[in-house]
């Protein structure tokens, strides 16, 4: 059995300013973001991870390092471009208030196939389908490499919204309806075969696992 511990990165300066924090933008963790990552580290200090996999974006790498700092034994760490946040083109790094494109925003939030077909090229963004395909490939490879053991995976809000809901059987058209995970929460899924996943916990604050 493979058990995954999925953790969204710590709060960043762009998160605090309520900006589009996509794959073409990055900013340092806030003090709250650092504290949140350290709290996850303390909560998971006793978990024996056979592997940690982080998005290659700096905010995720920093979060991973802060989490693993609490472990007495070293944990192998790999970075994966497939876990990077969705590239949002000209919206990346902008506040919602500055993006005056209501029709495109409506597709972005409410119509994944429509966004992929009609809006992604206009915005210069990735498609939802492309983000899901690349992130699933990371999890499939990790499961194949580690058919037993516990893995830490650190990535981003939209990536996890697409990826984890898909693993739980949510249809593609509804993947944005369940809320995004909060920063520095822990979601645990397990699988026996790499295809069927069981939810053990979802979007839990680290203090609940102590």
TrEMBL record:
Keywords: Hydrolase. The keyword ATP-binding does not apply. GO terms for molecular function: hydrolase activity. Its EC number is 3.1.3.-. It holds the Pfam family His_Phos_1. PANTHER family: FRUCTOSE-2,6-BISPHOSPHATASE TIGAR. This is Histidine phosphatase family protein. It comes from Lacticaseibacillus baoqingensis.
């Amino acid at each position: 059995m493979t058990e995954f511990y999925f953790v969204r990165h710590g709060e960043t300066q762009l998160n605090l300013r309520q900006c589009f924090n996509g794959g073409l933008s990055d900013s340092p963790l806030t003090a709250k973001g650092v504290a949140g990552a350290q709290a996850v580290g303390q909560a998971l200090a006793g978990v024996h991870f056979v592997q940690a996999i982080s998005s290659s974006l700096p905010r995720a790498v920093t979060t991973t390092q802060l989490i693993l700092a609490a472990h007495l034994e070293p944990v192998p760490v790999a970075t994966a471009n497939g876990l990077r946040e969705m590239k949002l083109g000209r919206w990346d790094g902008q506040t919602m208030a500055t993006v005056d494109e209501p029709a495109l925003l409506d597709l972005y939030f409410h119509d994944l196939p429509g966004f992929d077909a009609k809006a992604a090229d206009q915005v210069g963004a990735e498609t939802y389908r492309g983000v899901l395909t690349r992130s699933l490939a990371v999890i499939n490879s990790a499961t194949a490499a580690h058919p037993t053991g516990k893995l830490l995976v650190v990535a981003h809000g939209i990536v996890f919204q697409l990826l984890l809901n898909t693993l739980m059987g949510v249809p593609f058209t509804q993947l944005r309806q369940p809320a995004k995970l909060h920063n520095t929460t822990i979601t645990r899924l397990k699988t026996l075969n790499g295809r069927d996943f069981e939810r053990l916990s979802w979007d839990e604050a680290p203090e609940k696992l102590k």
